[in-house]
Automatic annotation (TrEMBL):
Gene3D superfamilies hit by this protein: 3.30.465.10, UDP-N-acetylenolpyruvoylglucosamine reductase, C-terminal domain, Uridine Diphospho-n-acetylenolpyruvylglucosamine Reductase, domain 2
GO cellular component, one term: cytosol
Biological pathway: Cell wall biogenesis; peptidoglycan biosynthesis
Domain of life the protein comes from: Bacteria
Keyword NADP annotated: yes
Function according to Swiss-Prot or TrEMBL: Cell wall formation.
Subcellular localization: Cytoplasm
Similarity comment: family membership: Belongs to the MurB family.
Assigned EC number: 1.3.1.98
Organism: Streptomyces thermolilacinus SPC6
Protein name per its UniProtKB record: UDP-N-acetylenolpyruvoylglucosamine reductase
Biological processes annotated in GO: cell division; cell wall organization; peptidoglycan biosynthetic process; regulation of cell shape
Coiled coil: none
Amino acid sequence: MQVTHDAPLAPLTTFRLGGPAQRLITARTDDEVVAAVREADRAGTPLLIIGGGSNLVIGDKGFDGTALRVATSGFVLDGTRLELAAGEVWTDAVARTVEAGLAGVECLAGIPGSAGATPIQNVGAYGQEVATTLTEVVAYDRRAEETVTLTGADCAFAYRHSRFKADPDRFVVLRVRFELEDAGGMSAPIRYAETARALGVEPGDRVPVAAAREAVLDLRAGKGMVLDPDDHDTWSAGSFFTNPILDDAEYAAFLDRVRDRLGPDTAPPAYPAGEGRTKTSAAWLIDKAGFTKGYGTGPARISTKHTLALTNRGDATTEDLLALAREVVAGVRDAFGVTLVNEPVTVGVSL
Ligand SMILES: Cc1cc2nc3c(=O)[nH]c(=O)nc-3n(C[C@H](O)[C@H](O)[C@H](O)COP(=O)(O)OP(=O)(O)OC[C@H]3O[C@@H](n4cnc5c(N)ncnc54)[C@H](O)[C@@H]3O)c2cc1C
């Protein structure tokens, strides 16, 4: 177990933002993770779990407690069953399942961060989300002070949400298990229209699993959604806001606002999101409220490749980023009456 004091956290995040932690522990085995968590909890010390730091906005003042970097390793593929240690790099694990010809997570290629964080917000992209293939999470339950195994149903997955996100101080994920599909080297049915178009197939078709992964990586790279240290458009947390889900009354009011502002024939993106609920697109709202790609003049700006990514152009502070995020939230609310909610987890700050 490696322990450092007054440790900078910015280099551990993809935003490269945030002040130091009083103490930083890097744990390389499950036992080390559990020991570090137990020790902090028994001492009453605030604890911040860090995987790849790709969904974290840490305040400029840093973290007055123990930051625990989960750097465990373990990749076990047994037939179609996959078990990953929390510290495994997610996108590398996806690549290995694709090399093995298995389907189920190929469209989640290129998502930065650790395997252990994938259940936290039920990561998803291009028509797949981990909720579909994840079978079990082995976690340390800080309340019961024991290691537990949760089924997929126990995780209460929803769109970019889970039991872990709802109750963030309870579980530390140690291992994640998946059931993949052996479709003879073919992908899962391609669900997302943009991916189907890129592959020249119809939604619902299957393609060679490696082709699906490549297509997704190409689409992502074009939007600055694959990490590249030389490209400031990727100094981000990916999508900064979740897509709003509106009930029928909210959606009707929203539609009125859209048509008042943009003309009676305007049809905003709308997807069914369960009984009496409609999901619309945060990127569309941001763009139509006047915050287009590259928006901003300061050190934090909207990505030049994707309206939904707020980025650090190199010398931003967390306050710069939050000022931009607040400006976008206020602008979208004024224009359309919808309040955007941040997707990344904030530490010591809020929008
Ligand atoms: C360029 C870019 C593109 C992205 N694209 C997508 C996308 O397409 N889809 C998507 O869903 N997300 C996307 N993201 C967001 C991010 O990559 C995911 O949310 C990812 O799962 C975060 O993993 P991480 O290890 O970096 O988590 P961190 O940022 O380190 O942590 C995020 C949260 O999870 C908690 N956490 C981390 N590890 C554990 C653990 N072992 N146990 C308990 N809690 C833990 C942390 O405490 C924190 O609350 C993108 C981010 C970037 C930078």
